[in-house]
Amino acid sequence: MVQVRKQLPDPASGAAVDLDEWVEHLAISLDDQDGGQLLEACRLLQQLAAGEGEDPGDWATESDCFAAGLDTALILAELHVGASCLVAGVLYRAVREKRITLEEVGARFGEEVEELLQGVLRMAAIGELRLHQEHPVLGQAHAQKDNIRKMLIALVDDVRVALIKLAERTCAIRAVKNDEERRELVAREVFDVYAPLAHRLGIGHLKWELEDLSFRYIYTDAYRKIARLLDGKRLERDQFIVEVKELLSRVLGGAGLEFEIEGRAKHIYSIWRKMQRKGIGFSQVYDIRAVRILVPEVKDCYATLGLVHGLWRNIPNEFDDYIANPKENGYRSLHTAVIGPEGKILEVQIRTHQMHEEAELGVCAHWRYKGSDGGDGMASTYEEKIAWLRQVLDWHEETGDADEVAEQFSFNVAQDRVYVFTPDGDVVNLAHGATPLDFAYHVHTEVGHRCRGAKVNGSIVPLTYELKTGERVEILTSNEGQPKRDWLQPGLGYLRTSRARAKVQHWFRSQAREENIAAGRQLLEREFRRLALTSVDYQRITRKVSAKSVEDMFALVGSGELASSQVLNAAQGLVERRPEPELKLARPGATRYRSEVQVHGVGNLLNHMAGCCKPLPGDAITGFITQGRGVSIHRTDCARLVKLQEASPERVIEVEWGGAPTDNYEVDVAIEAYDRHGLLRDITGLFANAHINVLSINTQTNKKSHTATMRLRVEVPNLASLSKLLERINRLHNVISANRCTAE
């Protein structure tokens, strides 16, 4: 990538660029027509660069439009894109700076180039996804959501749009080296959005550069420390790699294998991330010394692995088979760490030439191998990457939740996945914590709608069962089934993935408005009866939840677009302000909680509520320090938090709601049930899991009717948490009813 400046004289120096020679030496072959079109675009850019343009604010102030356009095209040529994509890359910055209009480009270079540039301009809206800002724009305005939606549509329709933007951002972050004013701004955008996007699309040789440069500008001290440690051992390491390559060449050659061996540079950000993730020092990073072996076929990979392990002793738990179990972005390779010559740790990567192309070029490798014998596998990987983009689009289209979009582009999305089998033996990749119902919707929307039960490894399990890797899942369906509104109640645990939840919401939105109104009314009236709230003022609650009318509020609840917990929280604010409130404070005179979160030890930090567990005031919470988004606040019992704690315990911190004690409300709960062994234990266990304090409990048993009546006095933080708890108690075996009752 550094060769760009050697081929291209700096225009600021006055040196002329021979554009004919420049086009001829691109890393891609073009026919006369395509080469002529690209040359025309370069000459036009040279003319446009001499004029005045607007500053978009996301490039170095001293950077040049002409040099940037040619640099972008050089990167795109390495990705083996076509002429239209190259022309769009050359002209993109000129269009962004309004030196030329889209219509003028379309008239001169064709509709395809114009549409590509339109997509890249839409994608520039993602620059507003600056999640490190104190007041993020994302999700706060409908126009912003629309920009993100359009960007995703552009990505799905033509992945070349993403490639142009990645190439342009690569040039941009190279150019801000000496621009202190804009350096961190560009680096943060690249770190939060474009490096993860390059990773998702599998474009390794851009991903590494984007990660290292953005890390260098954001975490300067950490970058310099690791760079010094690497430089201090560079000569010794280089000599070591030379000796390893010679020894491997003799062994592999003696076995009759075809191979290429190269030393592999460990990227600085990758070293730092491993040190942080594992809590280890620089000396414990095993792949500082590393080689990569390229062979023709998959069988040669495993043969080479056997020879390597025969030559040196491998280190337990440091072997990864990404050929049999590819990474989520399609990456395939064998990784092993061995105790090499002189007792020094050595990492060895083994892959085929095709796997290497895919690791470096990602989706672009699909075009190179299209039509070859390996094309089917490459096409499959390509489709998987595009499927991810479509999946993000589906979530946003069906839920309108722009925060979900932001989380998908973040480095901090938990990478834990669950791999389960269909009855036919196919592997399905699901998010950690997924249920059989999530599995059903992943297989097909109609399978999810008609799901009425599930078997795991041949045994019936509840639809709330948490799937584990390696399990075989079979969905039981009915002929005319339809979703249930209970599936959308987060406290019941039926759906854990946004995609499945969006499909259920979409189904209910498509039903007749009258049905949704009736269902929403029934649901809310049941909740208010259960919570013993009388004289509910629906008009005032409607205004608090920003619905146009009471019927609109019922329809939104019935369709799943408005959670009943939101309505209950609105109702709570009203009943608290009555002359004789229906909710009695557990500690009279307690100060109301503040809405912000205080972080122990460091004062106020930028924070956000985690999308996986969505903690509410009163929930027990724990903080996790993210990279670029401040502190992510999770419920303490969040499954994702448990995994994050295991991976990075040093980034877990104590947090609490506000600076003052949280209000708790003293309420009485009446439970009626058919008596059985362990009933009281199950009920009190639910209170304990919900972190709700039980002040008193009274139980009476009627031996004639074999029923038990319980009266509990408890402290709850809000009505929504009480409603969720009562719903869970009602679903226990033998429970007839569980309701709030007025205190005597």
UniProtKB/TrEMBL annotation:
The protein, known as: GTP pyrophosphokinase
Domain spans labelled ACT: 668-743
GO CC aspect terms: plasma membrane
Lineage top rank: taxon: Bacteria
Sequence similarity: Belongs to the relA/spoT family.
Pathway membership: Purine metabolism
A Pfam family hit: RelA_SpoT
Function in brief: In eubacteria ppGpp (guanosine 3'-diphosphate 5'-diphosphate) is a mediator of the stringent response that coordinates a variety of cellular activities in response to changes in nutritional abundance.
Record-linked PANTHER family: GTP PYROPHOSPHOKINASE (PTHR21262:SF31), GUANOSINE-3',5'-BIS DIPHOSPHATE 3'-PYROPHOSPHOHYDROLASE (PTHR21262)
BP terms from Gene Ontology: guanosine tetraphosphate metabolic process; nucleobase-containing small molecule interconversion; response to starvation
A single MF term (Gene Ontology): guanosine-3',5'-bis(diphosphate) 3'-diphosphatase activity
Ranges where the TGS domain occurs: 416-477
